[in-house]
Structures are given as structure tokens and as C-alpha cells.
Amino acid sequence: MSDPILLLTKLRDIAFNEKTRKKPAMQEKSAVAMSTNSRNRVRTGCRNKKHNPAIKSHTKENCWAIHPKKKEEFLAHNSVAVTASTSSSSSSQHQVPAFAAVTTAHCHLTRSSSSPAVLDSALIAQSNGKVLELKDALFVPGLSRNLISMTQLVKKSAVITRMNQLVRIVIDDTITFDCKDSNHIMEIQGEIGPVSREALALVTTTHSLSTSAFKTWHNHLGHAGIARLQSVLPGVKLVKSTTCNSCMKGKVSRVPFKGHFDRADHPLAVVHADLVGPITPSTNSGKRYFITLVNQYTGFISVTLLHCKSDTMEAILEFKAFYENQTEQRMKKLITNGGREFCNNTLSDVLKSHGIQHNMSPPYTPQHNGLAERANKTIINMSCCMLVQSCLAKEWWGEAVRTAALTTNCLPTLSKSEFSPLEQMFKKVPNIGFFHTFGCKVWMVKPPEKRTSKFDPIAWDAIMLGYSNDYSCY
């Protein structure tokens, strides 16, 4: 038995029963004689509508012999078992007259040897909507009153004060109820009964346990903010005291990501990488992925089409070798997400052998690699527009992606510089007049070696699908 109060009560009952069993027979006979003699004594109570002045338990104004209606009111008042509760100093546990499917126990009463009882939580629902939970309450059938243990209330940091004819009890600075003196017993007005855990959760959420005005109106008006509440309640003083658990679970959002990368001081100092795919359908050459490598310093974008994810490391090494040779700068840091194509021992060993730092963004946080994510979005959007305008089949997405990257590198990034990424990377001004509409019809001159007669057409019908050789041919 884990509850010390129940244990002490049980020990007291055992000791009382043992003492009763060992009483001598003479005492039992005396008790019988006293009981027999008491039946023959003369009653000196109030009767025949007359009050006996010798009786000090009540006054003439409250005498039932003279005022029988007061007796009826008293009996009717005491017969209420659910709507009223009593605060008792002799009760070691909270007791209510109802059953519940919870832990079983036994309660010893003065009018019976033992009564079955159950142990669970009970609620007092007050008229103002506040709810008090009584833990470890005993539900005893047959009780005509609800008894609340004063010792249990004291354990809850209760403050008891007397106000005229009432006694006010404040528990945990949140629950307040008043008691009145009824036949020398403190009586609490309210409803009390056994509840399940589900019902307790429902009641405690629908009835505010806090006296804060902000808490009350915040719950009533759909968890609106304090500024909006104050605008419609100008006469109410609202003070936000605690964090609302419901708001944290229902409205919380991430803090906006700001620029957190250290600015690179030269090309290839920091490179961002991201893989896109698998893409359906595959290109005409059977490629389903493309990797985007973005130079942080210049914004230059390099796109490489891949057959599978395992080609990622080879594409990174080709990028490193080519652009280090072209710019005479060394690649120092690579930033990627946590995908398996980037997080593997092979790539890690290669990067370490070249002295390249590898930073990986946390899971579900693409903002840490936002430069590559934004580059992918720009390229995919531009490619989609090109395919729609040209009316080409989706299998040509690879050519559209490469054309979009080459075009973007020749356009300045206004948020960074008035110069294009190509100019910052290679110190070369792009020739904008060289560009043409993707997918437009063109005529390609047929070489003389391909002509079978002098009257053959000297050109082929074709479609422009991109640029190559450093923007020197189509």
C-alpha cells in the first residue's frame, strides 16, 4: 500500500478491532445492561409543540417541536448527495457516494463495519466555470454527503480564511471556493463526482484554470494575439504571463533564415552542390539526373547531366579540375545536403585528400544550402518555359536545362552585382546578340560532301537546342 494515509487508517482499524476482540465478557454484559436501561429512561426532549429550556443544543426559534417545517428543510437539505460537498477534518481521504471502474479499496465507517470503495480522481465544478481536481478520492456507495479531507487540501498549499459567515479556501492561487457553516460542518456548494481521464482532460480544457484575463479571452477568441485582443477589449487590462502550449503546437514557425555564410573572397572558395532527380521521362540519351554546382563568390552555375546518382562524385571532380585550371583558383569548401550521393566514404576521402572542407546541411533544412536550391528553382522554371514555348517533347529537358544554365550565367544578378557571373568568373563580357530562342526553326547549311547532286537542297531544316564551345556555336 503506497499511500501513507491509507496505511495509517488501515493500521488504526486493525488495532481497534483487536482491542474490541479482547474486551472481557463483563464489559460486554455491562454494555448490554446499559443499553437495556437506556431504553427505559425518561425522555426530556421537546414535544407536543413545546420547547424544553434545559436542552442547550438549539434555541426556541429553531425548535422542531414548535417549527416542524424547519425539520423538513433540514432533512431535505441533508438528503442531497451530489450537489453539495462537505469539508471534514476527520476524513483522511476525499469521499463521494458513487461507483467508478477504477482501483478498488474498502472504507470503514462508524455506521457499518466496512464498505466497498474505489480510488480515482473527482472534480468539483464551480458555478464560475473553474474546476478543482481531487486526486485519490474514495467513491463510497451509501454516503449521503461528500466529504473532502482538510489534510489533503493542506498538501495542495491551501490558504484558509474566514469572511463573516463564510470560510474561503484558496488552492494553488487559482481555485477559490467558499464554505458555509451547516450544522457545525463546513459545506461547499458545487457538483462533485467520479470522472474518467478523458472527461478530466475535456473539462480542464474547456474551463480555464487560470484567473488571468488574457488567458480567458485568449482561449475564448481563438487564441488571438494580445494586440488584437486589446483592440477589441480596451477596458480590460491584459497581461501575457505564460506561454500558451496550444499556440506553440498550432502556430509555431521557424525563425526566418538570414544570410549566415561567410562571404567568399575569390572564385571557387566556396561551392554549393545539389542533385535533382530522378526525372521522368529520361533524356534521349537515357539521363535522369542533373547536378548543380554554384560558385558562391560569382554566382556561376555549372550543370552536368547524369545517368545515376553514383556519377555524382565524378561530376564534382571534373568540375574541380576544369574550373581550377581555368581560373587558377583552388576549390576550398563544398556545401551539400545530407544525401547519400554526397555522404559516402569515397567522396569524403577524395575531398580530404585535396584539402577540401565538406559542410552538410541538417536534415529537413534546405535553407542551409539555399544558394543551390534557388539555382535549381531558377533553372527548372526557365527550362519549363522554354519547353512550353518550343512545343518540344519532355525528353528534351536535358538540353533545356543546360541552355537555361548557360543563359543565366550571362545575366547579371542584381542583388549581388551589376556584372554577370560569366564576367566575374572569367573576366569575359558575354555577347548577348549571340542568343536565340530555344527550339526555334533554323536552316543548317549542308556540307558539299553531303550533296549527292547539284540540285539537292543546300540546307537542312533543324531546331536550335542550345550552345556549345564557350558560346561560339549552336
Automatic annotation (TrEMBL):
An MF annotation (GO) of this entry: RNA binding
SUPFAM superfamilies with a match to the protein in the record: Ribonuclease H-like
Disordered as annotated region, ranges: 21-53
GO cellular component: nucleus
UniProt keyword terms in alphabetical order: DNA integration, DNA recombination, DNA-directed DNA polymerase, Endonuclease, Hydrolase, Magnesium, Metal-binding, Nuclease, Nucleotidyltransferase, RNA-binding, RNA-directed DNA polymerase, Transferase, Transposition
Keyword Hydrolase: yes
GO biological process: DNA integration; DNA recombination; transposition
Chemical reaction(s) catalysed: DNA(n) + a 2'-deoxyribonucleoside 5'-triphosphate = DNA(n+1) + diphosphate
Membrane-traversing stretches: none
Integrase catalytic domain span: 263-429
Basic residues: bias regions: 40-53
Keyword Hydrolase attributed: yes
Name this polypeptide is given: Integrase catalytic domain-containing protein
Species assigned in the record: Puccinia coronata f. sp. avenae
